[in-house]
Amino acid sequence: MGNVKPKDLTLFFVTxxxxxxxxxxxxKEPEFMRELHRIREEMYEETKNLTTKERVKRTHRExxxxxxxxxxxxxxxxxxxxxxxx
Length: 86
Prior knowledge:
Blueprint: H1 6-18, H2 31-47, H3 52-69, E1 72-77, E2 80-85
Antiparallel strand pairs: 1-2
């Protein structure tokens, strides 16, 4: 390796291991997974700047709304909360 410079070796390894032709192709992601990732990204963007208390408050509000639409309500109990049919 007398005349080989470290820069040349770096270029060789980068080309060898990161050349798109050499890399394995990822399978195409199904449509429902793309939709799921999009929704998760939106949820993250909406909540990323919230404090822990704000997140808990928001989660409780969303759960209460969900339960209400399905005919239930949230009732505080000794160990947290319980659901009851309306």
